[in-house]
Amino acid sequence: MSFTNLIRKPFRYEFRNATLILLGVNLLVFILTYTFPNATAYLALNPVLAVQGKMYWQVFTYQFVHGGLSHLISNMIGLFFFGIAVERRLGSKEFILLYLLSGTLCGILSLAVYLATGTMEVFLMGASGAVFAILLAYAILYPNSIIYIWAIIPIPAPLLVIGYAALETLYLVTGTNQGVAHGTHLIGLAVCWLYFVVRFGINPFRAWFKKR
Question: Cβ distance 160 to 139 under 8 Å?
Fold first, then answer.
């Protein structure tokens, strides 16, 4: 079997409500960190603790930690609405691989950026990097889907993703809306883009153009 065939070998399709399990894990970790605030230092991603403290697991666990109830709810709404649809199309195994790989690579690459720029006091937390990846996956799999912003404004899913990418880039370049990991969001989009190119041989732009 060639390397390409190995990379693109599909999983047997199964639907196991993995999205709901991820929602439950995020909720349980939120309760844990709310009950034991010191747990945040062990689970969120901090460059000093991750490297000098050898808490390497933080590049994975940070994605289940949230800084407050509104932070948790906003991410879980995105995961719920887009995650279930993506999981149904890809199957639970593929969905879990995409989600966890995206979140973990977001952690690793964000850590690399923090170390390179000397940003050592930050605590990265939240599922938004992985959720952005799932949002892009949704737009690729359902290119004709219409999403209603604030339940009023209809926007095609691909256009919404492009808009988010442009907005996150603007925030990152101008330094506005600080306190939000805009770079991590963009990494999530990039990881998902590469995932579809490498894993499925699908170029999102071509998929959107072809559908239209």
Answer: yes
Strand ranges, E, within the chain: 146-149, 153-156
Helices (H) and strands (E) in the chain, counts: 11, 2
Neighbours of 85 (CB within 10 A): 17
Q: Mind listing the pLDDT tens digit for each residue in 155-181? A: 999 999 999 999 999 999 998 878 889
Residues 6 or more apart whose CB falls under 8 angstroms from that of 5 comprise: none
Task: Report if pTM > 0.90.
Answer: yes
Q: What is the DSSP string of 62-90?
A: GGG--SSHHHHHHHHHHHHHHHHHHHHHH
Contact 79, 23 (CB under 8 A): yes
Q: Quick one: pLDDT at residue 1?
A: 63
> Hey, is 162 helix, strand or coil?
helix
Whose tokens are 């880039």? That residue is 169
